[in-house]
Amino acid sequence: MAFNHLPAGVHDALAPLSVTPVTHSVPMAKNHRPDRPPTDLRSGPAPGAVLDRLASGPSRASRITHTEHLPPRGGRHAVWPDRIRPEVLAAVRAAGIEHPWAHQARAAEHALDGDSVVVATGTASGKSLAYLMPVLSTLLDGAEAPNGRGATALYLAPTKALAADQCRSVKELSQPLGHSVRAAVHDGDTPFEEREWIRQYANYVLTNPDMLHRSILPSHPRWSSFLKALKYVVVDECHTYRGVFGSHVAQVLRRLRRLCARYGASPVFLLASATAAEPAVAARRLTGLPVVEVADDASPRGELVFALWEPPLTELHGERGAPVRRTATAEAADLLADLTVQGVRSVTFVRSRRGAELISLIAQERLAEVDRSLAGRVAAYRGGYLPEERRALEHALHSGELLGLAATNALELGVDVSGLDAVVIAGYPGTRASLWQQAGRAGRSGQGALAVLIARDDPLDTFLVHHPEALFDRPVESTVLDPDNPYVLAPHLCAAAEELPLTEEDLALFGPATEDLLPQLEAAKLLRRRTRAWHWTRRERAADLTDIRGQGGRPVQVVEAGTGRLLGTVDAGAAHTSVHEGAVHLHQGLTYLVRSLDLEDSVALVERATPTYTTMARDTTSISVLETDTEVPWGDGRLCYGSVEVTNQVVSFLRRRVVTGEVLGETKLDLPPRTLRTRAVWWTVTEDQLDRAGIVPEILGGALHAAEHASIGMLPLFATCDRWDIGGVSIPLHPDTLLPTVFVYDGHPGGAGFAERAFHTARAWLTATRQAIASCECDAGCPSCIQSPKCGNGNDPLHKRGAVRLLTVLLEGAPVERPKDAGGAAGA
């Protein structure tokens, strides 16, 4: 029997809610008034006092396991390069900014010199102004050109919200410049009638990589005048382009560079990130160009108080009688309500869309008991909302109409929500980079800020709140991406060939794997070689071959059965687990039950309901080895890395009580299996090792299963991923290895670099896994060590002591690791 742990993209369920400087990247003060002395930071609620009020009460104080105080810091000024247009300088001064921070001036100087540059300074350190100054100045120069359209610039953001927010800021800043700067958002929400005007007249277009991939590049003849004049490409929040998504974006940018060259342009790339390790290396992988790094942050910051918070154990017992902690969801909802009562402007980040809805709903109920008017000042914000709903929420947050928001990471990325005093993070978000991004949403006007990380009942969360050095004494993760992944590269070669026939001169641009892939694409009758070029052969659009976010198909529309009203969408990869028949679906505080899921038409019909439970899908997984790339002896055992095929099927769902997580029942489902070819790391043990560890056949399955769960939970400390990006399978006798084997695999076609990173850090990774299990205070295993929230086998069997003994004997044979570049495993 195989025991499995599925990656998500597949799971958006509530129950297991998972709900960073370049050495210490912390919230920085925004430089609206850089001429002020650092002691003149805007006063707000003292973060320490806010935390004291949150922790008041007989049991609350004991929930804080650690408090980190990051002191305020002054800033260092410089002067703008003399090539910045005086009109732009005047506009910036009119906005209250007299002098730039030193890193802003340095980045602008490089941009004007024609050097691609990455600005990797802290949250709210003024990175936007660093790239806007040379962009606006160049656009103004172009506006005075006697012929043609003049200079243009392209801005890429990972989310629609960030692009819309940046467009507002650009329009405000450039208002004194008149019509010389014509900024416009071009995304999926842009009305059709506006798109033609944008193509013809906008000189600063703000969009996202998805729109660039699906719309702009395939229609490049209609964008020819824009591309011909393209001087700058801004890539904001570039650290988010990692894994499979980052690999896709890297190829989209290469396609953009190729078409620009076709029209005679060679744009300079300006990248920005508050949380990036080795930012120049990551930026070079992403763009394929040499990039200058500006990482010396000269901006001031206010005080940050960062608390680690562990919910208490309850009297309830979960699966196999394990003790159950209060959920991070319930705890976060209470803190959100308490902060709102105090008048503290805050945002609560949560991993899942359902979690955001539920935290908002619980907080509103708590607030209504205090003052009915307060309930309307808290809301949810997540992906899947209709465009008008998102815009209304963003406006309400900007205006202060909303005091508190429960949000997914849709609000993590740079949206300028000035004046927030506190951030609550419901569960470790998967990476230190993301943790510091979320914490940085508070204190953005220079005031002191409070951040609280609430631990989920999860091995990694429990480890972190009791080992604060793992958060506060380590740098953020390296950005892992692999543009040469054939599952990524192949569809982009097809898209590039449709845009402009591929020639041998293009091979170097797309990477070393291109030459080997082209014959395979010819054999598949996707490309045809004529004379010296490869051409796209199909009638359909090549850009439709791939979804660059790896969501596996068109989104499923969630439709209200009685009215036919579209409520929103769910990613195709998450549909089997989140909108299966009988699933509870939350939307803006309202609860629905899924009546049916039509996979062929990608529609889920829902109806209003008021269940007292939430739902979580169960699944089964099998795995087969396709090819072993590397094999290393670990004593008698083996550590391996290679290609695998994973077959998964959602087979049932659990009903759980909302606040306690108590299981109320299980219902069978009939959904088709799905297969995934990906990359995995796996390890085997021999009979002799099992004998030395005292592991008899009766406990072997439980020991392997427990070690698998815990190792998946701990991997985000060593790879730029979270446990929802990876999956696992354990089996006492695997047919391919003929030995007891544990697999951990990437949850993306072709791999994402996570399993390879695990292979290269296996000794440290599995040592931490053993420590996390052994140090847990429970007797037989619990969600804080070996139980998984998404286990397809209902966390049965599990054997805690057997897992510790198994990992001990495995690690006895582990070779000493040599230091390795964190991003090198994924390849460039």
UniProtKB/TrEMBL annotation:
Report the PROSITE patterns cross-referenced here.
Answer: HELICASE_ATP_BIND_1, HELICASE_CTER
One Pfam family name is WHD_HRQ1
SMART domains (alphabetical): DEXDc, HELICc
Helicase ATP-binding domain location = 108-294
Give the matching InterPro entries: DEAD/DEAH_box_helicase_dom (IPR011545), Helicase_ATP-bd (IPR014001), Helicase_C-like (IPR001650), Helicase_put_actinobac (IPR022307), HRQ1_WHD (IPR055227), MZB (IPR018973), P-loop_NTPase (IPR027417)
Q: Give GO MF terms, alphabetically.
A: helicase activity
Keyword annotations for this protein, in alphabetical order, are: ATP-binding, Helicase, Hydrolase, Nucleotide-binding
Task: Name the CDD domains on file.
Answer: DEXHc_Hrq1-like (cd17923), SF2_C_Hrq (cd18797)
The keyword Nucleotide-binding appears for this protein = yes
Region annotation (Disordered) maps to 25-78
- Tell me the ranges covered by the Helicase C-terminal domain, including all copies: 334-487
Q: What name does the UniProt record give this protein?
A: DEAD/DEAH box helicase
Taxonomic source organism: Streptomyces pimonensis
Q: What is the lineage of its organism?
A: Bacteria, Bacillati, Actinomycetota, Actinomycetes, Kitasatosporales
